[in-house]
Amino acid sequence: MSGSLRDTNLEGWNRPPVIVPDGEGELLEVAMGPHHPSTHGVFRMDLALDGERVVRLKPVFGYLHRNHEQIGETVSYLAMMPYTDRLDYICSLTNNWAYALAVEKLVGQAVPERAEYIRVILAELTRIVNHASAIGFLIQEMGASGTPLMYAFREREKILDLFESLTGSRMMCNYMRFGGCRVDPSAAWLDATRKVVAGLPQFAHEFENLLMSNEIVMARCQGVGKLRPELAINAGVTGPMLRASGVNYDIRKVDHYGVYDRFKFRVPLGDHGDIYDRYMVRVLEIHESIGILEQALKEIPGGPVMDPKAKIRGFRPKPGEAYGRIEGPKGELGFYLISDGGNSPYRFRVRPPSLINLTVLEDMCLGHNVADVVLIFGSVDIVLGEVDR
Amino acid sequence: MEEGLKIELGKQGVFVTTIEELYNWGRKNSVWPMQFGLACCAIEMIATTMARYDLARFGAEVFRPSPRQADLMIISGTVTKKMAPQVVRLYNQMAEPRYVIAMGACAISGGPFKQGYNVLKGIDRYIPVDVHIPGCPPRPEALLQAFMTLQKKIEEQPLTGEGRPRHLDAEAQGEFPVPVQGEHDLEPTSNKLVWPLPVVIR
Amino acid sequence: MKSVEEIKAAIEAAVPGAGVEIVPNPSPSGQHSLRLLPSHAVAVAYFLRDDEDLGLDFLSNLTGVDHLDKEIAEKVKVTRQVTKTVDGVEQTVDEVVEETRKHMEPGYLETVYHLFSMAKKHGPVVLRMRTVNRTDEVELPSVTPVWRSAEFQEREVFDLYGVVFTGHPDLRRLLMWPEFKDHPMRRDYKEPDDFEYEPTPHDTVLARAKDHKAAVAGQEGTGTGL
Known about the structure:
A: alpha+beta, Cytochrome-c3 Hydrogenase, chain B, B: two-stranded antiparallel ribbon
């Protein structure tokens, strides 16, 4: 069905041909957003419809363009850390980590072992929060108003309580530093985390059973919004969306950053690259994250959480540049920094996974009904703060 | 009516009220917010409606996607210059009586992003705001507090005379001018009627 | 993975006249980059993507950097002939003097590309390209036909820096509104005057307040002047 509309030629560039319907009638142009309940915030899609069928889709960005990159070039390195919380505001801790990693690469800073373990624990908790909310929002857009999202948010509140007691803030944690973490978690905090993690498998199974074999979920998700692996790679798609198309690329396994080498975990891969596979990859990643958390909480060593040699005041990296990236819950989150030896970076660039994953939105939606656009868009899992920055 | 007499009559099973009290009691307990999230604060707004904080206790669980059916606009997050005309347009589309909560530092003043070239330095430059909540982002409890403050404000509104709600005032301004996106900035940069420049008296 | 020197040699063998230059990176990250000539960039990009050893099929990051016109002061040792009186006889003697020479280095816009390989799981390879200047000759070839992931990122660089990518299928502003005229991430961008009253202006706010005062003084009967 979609093949006749647009044959994506990877070798060159073909504009999607606008199919003028045979006979009478004309295309209906719809501006979906920026205020639309299903666009996860302020995102706009300019659609051209032939009846119910999408023949053109142009995303419009910038409604939440908050100038992170400009601000990053005016404030000091450390002062940028709280801003990274607000990039992808569901997963502040992984953003912290990506930025800290980039700066550590820029200055060649080592991180103590205990801090690496804490980072892994926090990042995997964040991944669970993100995937659970993403599935909740996706199913909500399917019409199940409330229930799955409430399950997800119930679990999120438990994890957010852990974040709050460790970092002082529910959402904007601002916890990591160049060369470690800000505060050492107490034994009581680790025990509380163990308790929450012990309850997570039950939640994951419950969440899975609630939805996995639901007839409506299957009917609306399977075979819809397919993404071919070649196109996914060429378009720079990363994260669960790429793996749902069957490409084995997880930066935790590829870059060996942090202490991920020490944990046993599998990378779930999809087969068809449709919405259902993206949903299943996220569900399975929750299970793998729980496995990593259990191992990390068992093995966490003692010691300092901050490299004693790390410079905090008067932090001025030598001229040079670095690109650091991590496997964020939404895909490859990278920071590119150029230092000219000054107080603040000469160039501060965020590589947003959400924006680049949307490159293929049009390809996935063409030929489908307009109601499916909402679902396909939901399955990409974006946060507008990161798309527009 | 005397407060003591009212209580005394209440003990006897006779409830006395005024039209104003009854009318405002009804209004304050069924505020329908608009389902309109802008940025980080929107996630906390969703968390407020979920099981733990349960906004439904305040009669405000019905989030309407259409501005035509909503009474309350929660500006939950940063308003950028690209988004500001749409926010004002949505506000214009809401039916009276309508209220606005500016949630978070960004909606109040631009917050941490104040120096950004695309960030509007406070939504009250264009539309009147009833309740401001500080925080980045405010906790769900803070949003509940803002709701209660708004309810109190509705309760205290007289139905006639000075300070009556706009839907009972034939002269009140209904439409607010929508800013135009110009070549360098929004035009005008603020609505002087709702956001007068401060006058410095030395 | 191959080192930068090996990649440079491979590119030059495959694309004659590519003129690749290595830009060393002194930081501990050791991510050295290769500067390409815009005229050969697309051919090089195809080679990097399709080469069997490199297989850089994944363009991760594409961004712009602005470099302003810079005045460079260099101390140069100059030998010149001076007439001196030595022992009562006038002689011409060579003398070495230090002189400060100033010259303007024209500014340019630069784009930076970070490439990885999903098939071989290696990277990054960093590429760079420069425009001729910052004003009228700001064209660079688009790599969107090679890597689709460049589509939105090139639009963003066009929007915020004003680099015009030739060959991009749909070059429009990405983040700012279409009527907007400036390129706000350029380092000489001046924000519109939206100074707001502050009781204790300081630093940049004070400078802004003064600018605002001067601007308001020119117009009659506007505002309070603050």
